[in-house]
Specification:
The complex is a heterodimer. By secondary structure, chain A is an alpha+beta fold. Chain A is built from five helices and 15 strands. Chain A folds into three domains: 43 residues, RNA polymerase II/Efflux pump adaptor protein, barrel-sandwich hybrid domain (OB fold (Dihydrolipoamide Acetyltransferase, E2P), Beta Barrel), CATH 2.40.50.100; 75 residues, Beta Barrel (OB fold (Dihydrolipoamide Acetyltransferase, E2P)), CATH 2.40.50; 80 residues, Ribosomal Protein S8, Chain: A, domain 1 (2-Layer Sandwich), CATH 3.30.1370. Chain A is 21% helix and 30% strand. The longest helix of chain A is centred in the C-terminal third of the chain and has 16 residues. A five-stranded mixed β-sheet of chain B has the order 3-4-5-7-6. In chain B, strands 8, 9, 10, 11 and 12 form a five-stranded antiparallel β-sheet that branches. The chains are: A alpha+beta, B alpha+beta.
Chain lengths: 229, 243
């Protein structure tokens, strides 16, 4: 994989001094003796005094929409793999709608099923609880799943969702982006292919400017390609 | 072996001055499957380090409810030394794994990942004295490459006493026939040495010699730090990542 990073972006290493105002310290930093140091290897965002990670595992946060794969069904819910060091749990009570009389959780979702769900609670022991009582939460039994490095997800979403809406609008497909780096794409095969190609480009070129214009251009050219029969 | 002179006219057997490092080459991100990785050459030492995690830790009783568990495995390949080394952990490599792990404990920000583990693997492919410090240098770069939160980098180098003189970065002959070998690892933050995280000694030196040796080690560590930094920045600027 080739990675492209604009030369203007400043790369910082753990321990680099990046500021002297502890009140402004953002994610990816730590404070000691009133000084702000970079806590991870990544790109410095001087404005908000945070370090944008290049790599690393997904650590869930409350409010995140994630795409999970059911690992195991239990009597009171499902344990879900969210591609993180921590497994998540979806209790039956957080499943929308009722479970019909005489049926139990395994009749609704079983191991291997893919769902989108919201992280609603994380306890101090990092036990993660999911809920499907959300507009974007559903069982994803059709479509395709793409995995990218989760740190690039903000670029796939774009400012206020501009990038996803661009893909959805231009290609007429459904996309759900999970904060954990899993992206669900559903639509006509050729269109879905283009969308996945675009996602891969965004992943690779996440740290450059003018990405939206290049993606628009790419979609325009890709749509001219002869359809495969 | 009393008659062997290891320093002649201020030059060591490989032509270096007493305070000179061997050639060092560091490359980050060499393994695709690992979260972070690094290949290092320090003179004739050739070492690969791989970092995995934070990931869930099994068996469960090893988990710590408050912080991440760091595991470090130093291993020498059977072909890494002249006489075939019996594969698998032995007294020496278990000890090196333990002290190397402790060299990283104060640097990794462990509170962020309760119940999980960070696994560091250091494989020595070719050995020529100072493998534990070279391994620590590689592991430090690999940890940063994996995106693990740390307070700074760890840089390490060995110093020693050879022919009555304090020298930096010993080769095998100097280690075998010299009077002392002292591996040192330091915690470096914002270009400044903040502390020593590993200090061992094999042989004997006087108090003044140890002070001198530590000063020399600090100088060597700063040089290594600059090269580690360069390797990490090159990983982004170099435009290529292993397929």
């Amino acid at each position: 994989m080739k990675e492209v990073i604009s030369p203007e972006r400043k790369i910082v290493l753990p321990g680099d001094l990046i500021g002297k105002n502890p009140k402004k310290a953002g994610p990816g930093t730590y404070v000691e003796n009133n000084r702000v140091y970079a806590g991870i290897f990544g790109l410095l965002d001087e404005k908000s005094l945070r370090v944008i990670p290049l790599k690393g595992r997904y650590i869930p946060e409350v409010g995140n929409l994630v795409i999970g794969i059911i690992e195991e069904t239990q009597s009171n819910g499902w344990s879900v793999d969210i591609d993180s060091p921590y497994e998540a749990f979806l209790p039956v009570s957080e499943y929308p709608g009722r479970i019909p009389q005489g049926k139990d959780p395994k009749d609704i979702m079983k191991t291997g099923d893919v769902i989108s769900a919201k992280v609603v609670n994380i306890d101090p022991l990092m036990r993660v609880y999911l809920s499907m009582k959300d507009r974007n939460a559903k069982i994803l039994n059709r479509g395709r799943l793409v995995e990218i490095i989760h740190t690039r997800v903000p670029r796939v979403i774009g400012r206020k969702g501009s990038m996803v809406s661009l893909l959805k609008k231009e290609l007429g497909i459904s996309i759900i982006v999970g904060q954990n780096g899993r992206i669900w794409v559903f639509g006509e095969e050729d269109k879905a292919n283009i969308a996945i190609e675009c996602i891969k480009i965004i992943e690779r070129e996440a740290h450059t400017d003018g990405l939206t214009e290049r993606i628009t251009e790419y979609i325009k050219n890709a749509k001219k390609r002869p359809e495969r029969s | 072996m009393e008659d062997i002179k290891l320093i002649v006219d201020g030059r060591r057997i490989d032509g270096r001055k007493p305070d000179e490092l061997r050639n060092v080459k560091i490359e980050a991100g060499v393994l695709k499957r690992a979260d972070g990785s690094c290949y290092i050459e320090m003179g004739n030492n050739k070492i690969v380090a791989a970092v995995y995690g934070p990931r869930s830790l099994h068996p469960k009783h090893l988990q710590n409810p408050n912080r991440v568990v760091v595991r470090y495995r130093y291993n020498m390949a059977p072909f890494s030394v002249d006489e075939r080394k019996r594969p698998g952990p032995d007294r020496r490599s278990v000890e090196i794994s333990k002290v190397s792990k402790e060299a990283f404990e104060p640097v990794i920000i462990k509170e962020l990942f309760p119940r999980s583990s960070i696994d560091i693997f250091v494989e020595v492919l070719q050995a020529d004295a100072g493998t534990r410090v070279a391994g620590i240098n590689a592991a430090s770069v690999a940890l940063a490459d994996a995106g693990i939160p740390m307070k700074g980098l760890v840089s390490a180098v060995a110093v020693g006493k050879v022919d009555g003189e304090i020298v930096l970065d010993l080769v095998k002959e100097e280690d075998n026939y010299g009077q002392a070998d002292i591996p040192v690892a330091t915690f470096i933050r914002a270009g400044k040495i903040e502390g020593i995280t590993l200090l061992q000694m094999d042989g004997r030196v006087s108090k003044d010699e140890l002070k001198k040796a530590l000063e020399l080690a600090k100088k060597g560590c700063m040089e290594i730090y600059r090269m580690q930094k360069e390797a990490l920045i090159n990983r982004c600027r170099g435009d290529e990542i292993v397929e």
